[in-house]
Write a structure and sequence with these properties.
The complex is a heterodimer of chains A (257) and B (210). Chain A is 63% helix and 0% strand. Chain A is an all-alpha fold and 257 residues long. Chain B has 210 residues and is mostly helical. In chain B, α2 packs antiparallel against α3 and α8 crosses α9. In chain B, 29% of the residues are buried. The chains are: A mainly alpha (257), B mainly alpha (210). Chain A: It holds the Pfam family Sigma70_r4_2.
Chain lengths: 257, 210
């Protein structure tokens, strides 16, 4: 078993890696450098031998103990290549910021955590060994928050052309039905991925509203954190965004759905 | 939980949301209630956690390669020890005392000093600790290369010019600053026993006179 993480939750429990990451770390410990590097380069989630980023990060952190600059340099490059490409996928062109600049800024913050960990081993990177992609998303959003770019993004109001559209519950029902693909499990999985990718291509405001509907967030209600409250806009704006998004998704994924 | 967040506190809240569970409406609602100032950020994060797994990793290109190169430089700068960093600034002003001895002139200089070129290369590249390096030999070098003896001693204090990993000890343990002690350098530079004895005697004589 690899050494446990040291970061604790507010409840006092230790953060833990997934069982598959622990197993991958154990397995990598028995491989020579060439084999580890070969496996670390497999970054397609669906490919056999895919090395999870949580495992790759652990290997980078553990080079602190083996005094192998070559091993460290190669693993560092592979890890940062994945980070840079992941940021390229998640930070798209925007009128509110320079995507290249933002990607570099997030990568810098991640490297700062690696530096901190190398100079004085701590628990700052433990989050990344638990859920790498989600932790990287949190870091990216924190950089946006700290620089005020997220506020600028949310304050932008689209031109609604004074359309009222359909009532919210009807729209939500349509969208949720739309995501219920029929057919075998594999087909459903395929359609779900296609749908998520199509949602990911929507403009920011529509992407957020549709995803929240699919996750089952309440559309209306006085006490609950409704989608409008979460997005900081009116119910009318949400209705408009959902309607626009629904039309685009139907066009992209098939009118018959 | 708090209703205001410091910069680090805000990041921790986002990290906790990202890593302690799924982005369900119930969790998002609870976090948004406890941290209303982070509602937008948490909402954006919840959406990312849903969409990210379906996103294929784009291929590497010039911009991602530039990010990796910049990350490497940042890491190197951030992890260089204080011992290594401090001399870098002062060493920038030091001239290369061996600059006039390139090509065949370098082994000839070594022969005049009665050492091997390898020993002299270690001096040139700052690979020998200055602490126990005999001043008498520095004086011989100074006379040959035409610089002040203090400059020769100062140039020994520079950080080594090769990566740390190349100077790892055989037992695999880290070696601070990638430098050899004077005695190690004497023993591992291809010097004859007589040459070694001469250099070690210089050092002993100076330690004895301390």
């Amino acid at each position: 078993m690899p050494p446990p993480l040291t970061k604790r939750k507010k409840t006092g429990e230790l953060y833990v890696r997934t069982a598959s990451v622990d197993a991958a770390i154990d397995r990598a410990a028995g491989l020579d450098l060439d084999a580890v590097i070969r496996e670390a380069r497999v970054d397609d989630r669906g490919a056999p031998g895919f090395m999870e980023p949580e495992c790759l990060l652990h290997l980078v952190r553990s080079t602190r103990l083996d005094n192998s600059d070559d091993r460290f340099a190669q693993l560092f490059e592979i890890l940062l290549d994945r980070v840079a490409r992941s940021l390229k996928g998640s930070i798209r062109p925007s009128s509110l910021y320079d995507p290249e600049e933002l990607r570099q800024e997030v990568a810098d913050r991640f490297v700062d955590l690696l530096v901190e960990d190398r100079n004085q081993p701590g628990d700052g990177l433990d989050y990344f060994e638990v859920r790498f992609a989600s932790a990287l998303a949190a870091l990216r959003i924190d950089v946006l928050r700290a620089s005020g770019r997220l506020a600028a993004k949310e304050d932008h109001v689209e031109d609604m052309h004074d359309q009222e559209g359909q009532p919210l519950p009807a729209l939500a029902k349509q969208l949720r039905q739309f995501s219920q693909a029929e057919g075998a499990e594999q087909e459903k999985e395929h359609f779900r991925n296609e749908l998520l990718r199509a949602i990911d291509r929507l403009p920011d405001h529509e992407r957020v509203a549709v995803t929240l509907v699919l996750k089952g967030h309440p559309i209306e209600g006085d006490d609950a954190e409704t989608i409008a409250k979460l997005c900081g806009v009116s119910d009318r704006a949400i209705r408009y965004r959902l309607q626009k998004a629904y039309e685009k998704l139907r066009r992209e994924l098939g009118e018959g759905r | 939980m708090t209703t205001t967040s410091t910069a680090r506190g805000a990041r921790d809240v986002l990290m906790m949301f990202a890593t302690e569970g799924e982005p369900t409406p119930r969790r998002l609602e609870a976090y948004a209630k406890d941290h209303p100032e982070l509602r937008r950020e948490l909402t954006e994060l919840a959406v990312e956690m849903v969409l990210e797994p379906s996103r294929p990793l784009p291929p590497a290109d010039a911009s991602t390669k530039a990010t990796v190169a910049s990350a490497w430089a940042r890491f190197q700068a951030g992890t260089r020890s204080d011992v290594e960093r401090a001399p870098v600034r002062s060493a920038a002003a030091l001239p290369n005392v061996f600059a006039g001895f390139s090509g065949a002139a370098f082994p000839r200089l070594a022969a005049r000093l009665d050492v091997t070129p390898l020993f002299l290369i270690k001096m040139k590249d700052g690979l020998i600790e200055a602490a126990r390096f005999p001043r008498a030999f520095s004086k011989l070098v100074a006379d040959e290369v035409g610089h002040e003896v203090d400059l020769i001693i100062a140039s020994l204090g520079r950080p080594s010019a090769i990566p740390r990993g190349m100077m790892a000890k055989s037992d695999g343990k880290p070696e601070a600053g990638a430098k050899q002690s004077f005695e190690e350098a004497v023993a591992t530079s291809g010097l004859t026993p007589e040459q070694q004895e001469r250099l070690l005697n210089m050092a002993r004589a100076e330690r004895g006179s301390d």
